[in-house]
Design goal:
Distance between the termini: 48 Å
Structural class: alpha+beta
Strand order of the largest sheet: 6-7-9-8
Largest sheet: 4 strands, antiparallel
CATH superfamily of the largest domain: Aspartate Aminotransferase, domain 1
Number of domains: 2
Length: 278
C-alpha cells in the first residue's frame, strides 16, 4: 500500500500509528518551499525485503564484476538510491522541519482551513447577471474532506469555458500566482471536463506536431471542452490579503468579455484566437 501524502503533510499531522501504509511519499518542497526537487520515500522495514531489483546503478552496489557477471546490492534502502543524493540541500530540510514545528502544524492547518473556506464561499457566490455561474469548483465545496488546494474553471455569461491560460496570464499582471493545466494528471482532467474516448482519438489523429494550443482549439470545436483547469494553492505563508486579491480578480469577469489591466484592454474571445496562433 502506497500513500501519496505530498499534499497532505504541509498542513496536517500524519499519524503513521493510525494509518499504516507500507510506503509514504512526501515532498519537502511542498512543506516549506525549499529546497526544490527533494522529497522522501518512507518504507516499512518489514516490506523492504520483499522488493526485488534485478539491476543496479551508481551507489547501489557493494560489489560488481564483469567477468563474474554478477553484483551484490547494498543493504537496506541504499540499494534503491541511485546516484548521489542532493547533500547540499539536505541541511535545509532540517531547518524547514524545525520551522514548521516552531509554528505548529495544528495552527497552520487551522489557518489554511479558514482561508480555504472563505475562498470557496466567495467563489460559489459569484454569478453573472443572467444567472449563469462564473466559477465551477472541482471536488468538495466545503472544507470537509479537502485540503488547501482549490481547483476551478471560469465561465463567461454564455456558459463557455474561459481559456485558463489567458486567466493565468491576466492574473500575473496583477501579481497573482496561479497554476494551470492538467497538473500532471491527464486522466482526471479528461474525466472532469467530460472528454470522451472519441475526443481523445480525434486529438491523437492530428498532426505529429500537436501541442496544447492546437488541442485546446480542437476541443473548443467539440463543445467548448478543456482538459485543464486553474489551481489556487494555499499554504503556510498564505494570508487573507492574498485570497482577498484573488477573489476580487475573479469578480472582474462578471458580465464581461472585456477586461482592462493598466492601460491595455484585452478582449477574452479575441485573445483566445490570437493565443492559439490562428
Amino acid at each position: 500500500m502506497l500513500l501519496d501524502a505530498g499534499a497532505y503533510v504541509p498542513t496536517n499531522r500524519l499519524d503513521l500509528t493510525e494509518v499504516q501504509p507500507d510506503f509514504v511519499v512526501v515532498s519537502f518542497y511542498k512543506m516549506f518551499g525549499y529546497p526544490t526537487g527533494v522529497g522522501a520515500l518512507l518504507v516499512r522495514r518489514s516490506v523492504l525485503g520483499k522488493l526485488h531489483r534485478p539491476w543496479f546503478a551508481g551507489g547501489t552496489v557493494n560489489f560488481a564484476s564483469v567477468q563474474g557477471q554478477g553484483h551484490v546490492l547494498s543493504q537496506g534502502e541504499a540499494a534503491f538510491e541511485d546516484g548521489t543524493l542532493n547533500y547540499l540541500a539536505i541541511p535545509a530540510i532540517e531547518i524547514g522541519l524545525r520551522h514548521l514545528e516552531s509554528i505548529g502544524i495544528e495552527k497552520t492547518s487551522e489557518r489554511v482551513r479558514g482561508l480555504t473556506g472563505w475562498v470557496l464561499e466567495e467563489l460559489l457566490a459569484l454569478w453573472h447577471s443572467n444567472g449563469h455561474a462564473m466559477v465551477r469548483i472541482y471536488g468538495p465545496t466545503t472544507t470537509q474532506a479537502r485540503g488547501g488546494t482549490i481547483t476551478l474553471n471560469m465561465y463567461d455569461p454564455d456558459g463557455h469555458l474561459l481559456d485558463y491560460r489567458r486567466v493565468e496570464e491576466l492574473a500575473g499582471h496583477e501579481g497573482i500566482s496561479l497554476r494551470t493545466g492538467c497538473f500532471c494528471n491527464p486522466g482526471t482532467g479528461e474525466t472532469a471536463e467530460g472528454l470522451t474516448e472519441e475526443d481523445m482519438q480525434a486529438a491523437l489523429a492530428m498532426s505529429p506536431d500537436i501541442n496544447l494550443f492546437s488541442f485546446t482549439r480542437l476541443m473548443r470545436t467539440r463543445g467548448h471542452k478543456s482538459a485543464g483547469a486553474i489551481r489556487v494553492s494555499l499554504g503556510l505563508v498564505s494570508n487573507f490579503a492574498d485570497v482577498w486579491r484573488f477573489v476580487r480578480f475573479v469578480e472582474k469577469f462578471r458580465d464581461q468579455t472585456l477586461l482592462t489591466i493598466g492601460e491595455v484592454s484585452f478582449d477574452i474571445e479575441s485573445c483566445r484566437v490570437i493565443r492559439d496562433g490562428s
